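Note to self: keep these together.
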Amino acid sequence: MLAFAFNSFAKATIPIDSLTLSEFSSAKASLITCSPGKEIYNLFGHTAIRFQFKDNSDVVFNYGLFSFRTPHFILRFTMGKTDYELGIQSYQEFEDNYAFNNRSVEEQVLNLSTAEKIKLYDLLTTNYLPENRVYRYNFFYDNCSTRPRDKIEQSIAGKVIYPHYMEKKSFRDIIHQYTVGHSWDRFGIDLCLGYAADKPISPRLMMFCPFYLRDFVEKAKILNSDGSSRTLISKHNKLVISQSTQKQGFVPTPFQVMLLLFILSAAVTIYGLKKKKSMWIYDTVLFTVAGLGGCIIAFLMLFSTHPAVGSNLQIFLLHPFYLLCLPWILLSERAHRKSRILIVFDIILTLFIVLFAVLPQKMDLAIVPLALSLLVRSLSNVLLTYKEKK
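Structure:
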């Protein structure tokens, strides 16, 4: 969905004033869709607009440019304050880059009149002006897929009618669809998104994903002002066909890792109860990691402008209080005193596990063994102090 920005991105466009009416008449405007890459920032593919003129001028307008070298990039991205920009490059350079990375490229030729092509080109070149090209990126609502769609719609002398879509989808459903085989990426995304990501969305919102945009425009029609209609797409071409690649070696899934963590936690608990020993070193590591995860979720909920992260029920499982209360928990464990804090944690964790299947938020199944790990360690210390008091 995102394309990495090169500092030397070429200005390959032609000023609109130097183009004649006949050149626009024979020009071809297309919606470009590219297949996913391997990195998390391009798992969802990419969209661009191509303009091809008969004089061999062939350029791509690309709304997916960003740079990791931007100051405080990670922090700004986390807070939803990342700026992207429109760039222009030659189509051949664009195609070579995707072919080199074994990513397919297809185009849908837009069925536009000469006047509409002129308007679309004018909108894009105006948007490319230095004062206009930078925009505040939003993963769901304003990205490299929605911007080309909006410019195409603005250029048309009529209304675009998209096909009716019966199936109900949520943002999370679409994310899961394109993170198959990337279980850790999916786990991380699910950890950050709240239950707002599980609400059904309209077909228009589904177009945040390049492949949904491609499928919708393929069957879309233009309702002209005189009442007649025409198809939005006149032709569909496959420009680059990716080759099948070998599957990566075995990588344990989040569920497998969390299940192993639960088995280890259960074994540590059994040993501690038998020996009547507080396993405070293990608990320090476990609750510290859980607390750090909670800090990330709390930060996103409180400070990030990313959509669908402010209502995350996983805050009841992973929260900063593990870190804040850790000194009192450890002191109670080592002194063999009952900890009221752990009793509260036990109640919250038990309710979370019992209600997991009916919560309005979809969560990765790996969350369950993680919750059980925290519960058995918290509960074991309460039981240990209870037995000693008896």
